[in-house]
Write a structure and sequence with these properties.
Blueprint (H helix, E strand, L loop, with lengths): L5 H8 L9 H20 L21
Protein backbone atom coordinates (compact mmCIF):
# COMPACT_ATOMS: atom_id res chain seq x y z
CA UNK A 1 0.00 0.00 0.00
CA UNK A 2 1.58 3.27 -1.12
CA UNK A 3 0.65 5.87 1.45
CA UNK A 4 3.28 8.49 0.58
CA UNK A 5 0.66 10.68 -1.09
CA UNK A 6 -2.49 9.27 0.46
CA UNK A 7 -1.73 10.37 4.02
CA UNK A 8 -1.15 14.08 3.31
CA UNK A 9 -4.12 14.19 0.91
CA UNK A 10 -6.41 12.45 3.39
CA UNK A 11 -5.42 14.80 6.18
CA UNK A 12 -5.86 17.85 3.96
CA UNK A 13 -9.30 16.68 2.79
CA UNK A 14 -10.46 16.45 6.38
CA UNK A 15 -9.07 19.88 7.24
CA UNK A 16 -6.30 18.50 9.44
CA UNK A 17 -2.99 20.36 9.13
CA UNK A 18 -0.24 18.18 7.67
CA UNK A 19 2.84 17.90 9.86
CA UNK A 20 5.54 16.45 7.62
CA UNK A 21 7.37 14.83 10.53
CA UNK A 22 4.27 12.83 11.47
CA UNK A 23 3.64 11.37 8.00
CA UNK A 24 6.16 8.47 8.32
CA UNK A 25 4.66 7.51 11.69
CA UNK A 26 1.14 7.54 10.24
CA UNK A 27 2.34 5.49 7.25
CA UNK A 28 3.87 2.93 9.60
CA UNK A 29 0.65 2.66 11.59
CA UNK A 30 -1.46 2.24 8.44
CA UNK A 31 0.91 -0.42 7.07
CA UNK A 32 0.78 -2.31 10.38
CA UNK A 33 -3.02 -2.24 10.39
CA UNK A 34 -3.06 -3.40 6.75
CA UNK A 35 -0.70 -6.32 7.48
CA UNK A 36 -2.70 -7.44 10.51
CA UNK A 37 -5.99 -7.19 8.61
CA UNK A 38 -4.50 -9.26 5.79
CA UNK A 39 -3.49 -11.96 8.30
CA UNK A 40 -7.00 -12.04 9.76
CA UNK A 41 -8.57 -12.16 6.29
CA UNK A 42 -6.45 -15.15 5.28
CA UNK A 43 -7.26 -17.04 8.50
CA UNK A 44 -10.68 -15.89 9.76
CA UNK A 45 -10.92 -18.72 12.32
CA UNK A 46 -7.85 -17.47 14.18
CA UNK A 47 -9.98 -16.25 17.10
CA UNK A 48 -11.28 -19.80 17.62
CA UNK A 49 -7.84 -21.26 18.30
CA UNK A 50 -6.77 -21.61 21.92
CA UNK A 51 -3.49 -19.80 22.50
CA UNK A 52 -0.61 -21.82 23.88
CA UNK A 53 0.54 -20.62 27.29
CA UNK A 54 3.90 -21.54 28.74
CA UNK A 55 4.09 -21.15 32.51
CA UNK A 56 7.35 -21.13 34.41
CA UNK A 57 6.91 -23.56 37.34
CA UNK A 58 8.95 -21.26 39.59
CA UNK A 59 6.39 -18.50 39.12
CA UNK A 60 3.48 -20.56 40.45
CA UNK A 61 3.03 -20.30 44.19
CA UNK A 62 0.99 -22.98 45.87
CA UNK A 63 -1.21 -21.95 48.79
Amino acid sequence: MDTAYIVPQGLALQGIPVIREDVPYIQHMLNTIYELQTAVDTNPEIHEEVPMVVVDPDVIIYD
